[in-house]
Write a structure and sequence with these properties.
The chain is of the alpha+beta class. 13% of the residues lie in helices and 32% in strands. A six-stranded mixed β-sheet has the order 16-15-27-20-21-24, with helices on one face. Strands 2-1-11-6-7 form a five-stranded mixed β-sheet, with helices on one face. The two termini are 27 Å apart.
Length: 430
């Protein structure tokens, strides 16, 4: 059933009320104006009845309602969103404590098993559905979807405005501020009228046999992973990797087009070395990390800076728009690259060199990144890590040809088009 699982934070009135004072202070300055999206990658996906291993950190249950898409949805208006819904399911958006919304919360949200989901069923009306959480047979929480800021239709419209949704894609509608703490040995059941219940058991024992990953390979990306790029944007180099996840709708290929939205001030390219995972990796040491790498490729990680808000930065409206991540499909085997930390990266716009750097200037190198991610989540074959970009950013506009290349890996060509040009091409294909 599952393809991409999108989730939205700060969509419950109790949650925004709790954070209201903080939103008036740095680094936020103001409450969010648009939905705060994040992604639950495939290592988090589990089913009804599965046993889930808890990390050492305190974990909280977040019972919620999942809306499942029934067909392709692109730029859908809220009034018609119901026509695109296949049904609903209960989901448990497990999380460590939510301490900040300023940077990607991948360590809190994306651990193995942190998104069990129940069976799909139709619902005539999900506008005031009570979600009940029971722990060991005792009711511990009850809340209503009437307390959400945005309902399913509104969220579908907001997400499909920049990301094409496919049949099987899932949107988790949010949770209250107060979550239910979990302990090893707990059995948690979620209930809601008209939907199959969802029950999972929790243990402190590492999972002996992790289920095969369902859904798309995960595309991880790094923010500010070159010190000169951080300086270029008036930031300090991070002390811990700023990892976020890009949705598959954003991927496109070599010699493809990328859409610059209308009425923008600034959209820029980012030449990046991409690591391709070759075998399942969990708790991998830095010394052994490269053994889990199949090879390398190239991507251009475009960003629309006009849409940046200080919530789950960089957010999906900035980084996961349709067509904004051209990716070279060919993978260069690891054995063909003696040293991935000494490769030249270049970007050309209309034949003019605009960006030049070297992978030796990464803040966190490839072995560190593979080891770091595998400490708290399982990496699966086909997963990708885009490792960041050096300084040298510039605005690109419709008509521009953008070429990114990495020494020994390959050359990726891309063309920028306007929204009107892109829509006309889609109509021609139809």
């Amino acid at each position: 059933m599952k393809r991409t699982v999108f989730a939205v934070a700060l969509n419950h009135r109790a949650q925004t009320a709790h954070w209201q004072e903080a939103f008036g202070q740095p680094p936020y300055q103001a409450a969010p104006k648009t939905p705060v999206w994040f992604i639950k990658p495939r290592n988090t996906h589990r089913r009804d009845g599965d046993t889930i291993s808890l990390p050492m950190e305190q974990t909280y249950s977040g019972g919620t309602l999942a809306v499942v898409m029934g067909r392709t949805a692109r730029k859908v208006v809220a009034a018609e969103a119901g026509e695109y819904i296949a049904g609903y399911a209960l989901a448990n958006e497990l999380s460590l404590a939510e301490e900040s919304f300023y940077r990607p919360a991948i360590k809190a949200k994306c651990r193995d098993g942190f998104c069990p989901m129940g069976e799909l069923a139709p619902l005539a009306d999900a506008s005031a559905l009570e979600i009940i959480t029971e722990v060991n047979g005792e009711e511990r929480q009850r809340w209503s979807t009437a307390d959400l800021h945005r309902d399913a239709a509104t969220l579908i419209a907001a997400l499909s405005d920049f990301a094409t949704l496919q049949a099987g894609d899932v949107i988790l509608l949010g949770t209250p501020q107060q979550r239910v703490p979990l302990s090893p040995g707990d059995e948690v059941t979620l209930r809601a009228a008209g939907l199959p219940s969802l029950t999972n058991r929790f243990t402190d024992r590492p999972e002996a046999a992790r289920p095969a990953a369902e859904g798309h390979p995960t595309l991880f990306a790094l923010g500010l992973n070159y010190a000169d790029h951080a300086t270029e944007l008036d930031f300090k180099a991070p002390e811990e990797p700023l990892v976020f996840i890009k949705a598959p709708n954003t991927l496109t290929g070599d010699h493809a087009v990328s859409v610059r939205p209308d009425n923008l001030e600034y959209m820029h390219y980012e030449a990046e070395l991409v690591v391709v995972i070759g075998k399942t990796a969990r708790n991998v040491s830095r010394d052994q990390a490269l053994e889990y790498v199949q090879g390398y490729t190239v991507c251009n990680d475009y960003a629309v800076r006009d849409y940046l808000e200080n919530y789950y930065r960089p957010n999906l409206r900035v980084k996961s728009r349709d067509t904004l991540t051209p990716l070279l499909p060919q993978v260069t085997p690891r054995a063909a690259i003696p040293d991935a930390q000494n490769l030249q990266l270049k970007t050309f716009v209309n034949g003019e060199l605009r960006q030049s750097g070297n992978t030796r200037d990464m803040v966190f190198d490839v072995p560190f990144l593979v080891s770091y991610l595998s400490e708290f989540m399982t990496l699966h074959p086909g997963d990708l890590i885009a490792t960041g970009t050096p300084k040298g950013l510039a605005d690109v506009r419709p008509g521009d040809e953008v070429v990114v290349e990495i020494e020994g890996i390959g050359r990726l060509t891309n063309h920028i088009v306007s929204e009107q040009q892109f829509e006309e091409s889609l109509h021609e294909q139809d």
